[in-house]
Specification:
Rossmann fold, about 550 residues, 21 helices, disordered C terminus, 7-stranded mixed beta sheet, 4 domains, about 45% helix, binds zinc ion, Hect, E3 ligase catalytic domain fold, alpha/beta
């Protein structure tokens, strides 16, 4: 029996496509094996909204129409929500295929038509529920004068009180209110005055605060701003947050349109659409001062976007980690040389950047100093005779360096447990259990699942544990190091992208740390190659970059610079 695999990823899933596709495919491959079949064709759609192109699915259906030439007899899908999240859509696609004589099989959650229909109903219900309930619940919180989740905005701290619902209070749940922070409040007031009365820019304000050694707000992701410096983006956020006028405001941006159109930016809601609290907290800034601050933002003519007249060979691949958290470096040309320059000064002020020992205002490194290191790296670690030995040595050294592995395994297991529990609930429907009871339980389980998935999504991508396959892939590559040296910048860049090259430059240590990846697809493409021609790495795989998180550890080195 021949199966077509169909997979789908929507941005709502918050999953990496490089992980989602193989994981859905592998699960389906196992299922197909138990059915005594093989996967003979596959399609995968990446969607960015609820009303979206499903180019892959439409292609699959088109091929299914011709029973003489189609390469498959049945379709395997991971679960009903992968076919389409909308119940009607999913049911229609399934019916279309059935009419063409091509039944749809689900890897999980399939089974009786009733089971499938219920699962589809739950998918749709969940989506509508999330939209409506979250907004309503959070709006209600706002109305009660409580702050929705997260930490207090800079200038305030949270004061806790027992939860107003007795049953939750007895469980130890608390609610929080905002109260001015005596140290941070004057800083916020200074920022507004400097902006409105002294006419300073956001960068000048950041500079002034940084030189006065006022600690900045702690970034939600503490690894991002370890030096605790003020960035102009922080200043801007403070100047635009109406919370300082004593009202809680929620829902200032609307992402729904972006999802439905499958792209574009979030819409900023009009002020009369904002959800505001009726119970106020103490104001730090008067409404007049706040309005004046907004006026200056509106008055500022929008500077034309920086023209990128040329694309640099290493743009987006190089980060500066010279005494601060890794930060992008951007290309710049001066006096005939191309440099990669650290972005730190542009975000935190040049004097702040200059204060980092050995860094300088515009920490930069010449492209033609980095390129030979990169080419050496490819020659030794990726194409050279000793590459598999070097890889083995390095994997030994890394040992259990994947610190998140255990957490990731636990979360993955918990998600699987939730799915099993949901399936059991759905089976309960057929056994005659009250649907309302089942819905309540499924709703709980869905929340658990969302929690685990959110936790999973912030972990670093897994390092490949399949070291054997990694070594195999590496060993299959022909020696293209001379070809890479001789290639033009366009081809070189394609190769760097295909290998997912990343470089971290540390001027204080004088090192450039590089990593790259070799996945199955790339090894397939390059295996028989004797030269590097344009698009060799990008063709044949639906275009675009071949990128993978797998095998990121396969080649890794620190070199003096
Ligand atoms: Zn830097």
């Amino acid at each position: 029996m021949r199966f077509a695999f169909y997979g789908r990823l929507s941005t709502d899933d918050r999953q990496d496509v490089t992980l989602a596709r193989p994981s859905q495919l592998h699960a389906c491959e196992r299922k197909v094996q138990t059915l005594g079949g093989t996967i003979t064709a596959d399609w995968f759609d990446v969607e960015s909204g609820s009303h979206d192109q499903r180019a892959g699915l439409l292609e699959l259906i088109a091929e299914a129409r011709d029973s003489a030439t189609r390469r498959f007899d049945q379709v395997i899908v991971y679960n009903t929500s992968r076919l389409a999240r909308d119940r009607v859509d999913a049911a229609l696609f399934e019916r279309d295929l059935r009419r063409l004589g091509v039944p749809v099989v689900y890897e999980s959650g399939g089974g009786s038509p009733l089971e499938i229909a219920i699962k589809q109903a739950i998918d749709e219900h969940e989506r509508n529920q999330i939209k409506v309930e979250t907004r309503r619940g959070q709006a209600q919180n706002i109305m009660n004068g409580y702050r929705c989740g997260g930490r207090a905005p800079y200038g305030y701290r949270l004061e806790y009180e027992p939860h107003p619902v007795a049953s939750r209070a007895s469980k130890g749940d608390r609610k929080s209110r905002l109260t001015p922070d005596p140290e941070q409040m004057p800083v916020v007031q200074d920022i507004y005055r400097w902006w409105v009365e002294d006419g300073l820019g956001t960068m000048a304000i950041a500079d002034r605060l940084n030189s006065g050694a006022v600690p900045s707000p702690v970034h939600t992701n503490t690894s991002r701003n370890v030096r605790r410096r003020w960035a102009k983006s922080t200043i801007r956020a403070i100047l635009q947050n109406p919370v300082y006028t004593g009202r809680l405001v929620w829902d200032r941006t609307d992402h729904s349109l972006k999802r439905e159109r499958g792209g574009g930016g979030a819409r900023r809601r009009e002020p009369d659409e904002w959800v505001r609290s009726e119970v106020e907290h103490p104001a730090i800034i008067t409404q007049t001062l706040f309005d004046a601050a907004q006026g200056r933002f509106h008055a500022k003519s929008r500077r034309p976007a920086r023209k990128s007249s040329r694309v640099y060979l290493l743009t987006g691949l190089v980060k500066c980690a010279s005494g601060h958290e890794p930060l992008a470096m951007f290309g710049a040309s001066t006096r005939g040389y191309t440099y990669m320059r650290c972005d730190y000064g542009r975000s935190y002020g040049s004097s702040e950047a200059a204060a980092i020992p050995g860094h300088g205002q515009w920490c930069s490194v010449r492209e033609d100093d980095l390129l030979p290191l990169i080419l050496d790296f490819f020659e030794k670690r990726i194409f050279g005779a000793a590459r598999t030995d070097l890889l083995a040595k390095q994997l030994d050294q890394l040992g259990g360096a994947d610190a998140d592995a255990q957490t990731r395994a636990r979360l993955t297991r918990q998600i699987a447990d939730v799915d099993t529990a949901v399936a059991a609930q759905v089976r309960g429907l057929e056994a005659g259990i009250d649907p309302m009871a089942i819905k309540a339980r499924v709703d709980e389980l869905k929340i658990d699942r969302a929690t685990y998935e959110a936790a999973l999504s912030v972990l670093a991508p897994p390092m490949s544990t399949d070291h054997g396959r990694l070594a195999d892939n590496l060993a299959r590559l022909p020696d293209l190091s001379d070809a890479l040296r001789a290639a033009g910048p366009d081809v070189q860049r394609e190769v760097f992208d295909a290998f997912g090259l990343r470089l971290e430059y540390d001027r204080t240590r004088g090192t450039a740390r590089m990593s790259a990846a070799v996945d199955d697809a790339l090894a397939d493409v390059l295996a028989g190659a004797t030269e590097l021609t344009p698009s060799i790495c990008t063709g044949g795989h639906g275009g675009g970059r071949i990128r993978t998180c797998e095998g990121r550890a396969n080649a890794f080195t620190a070199r003096p610079l």
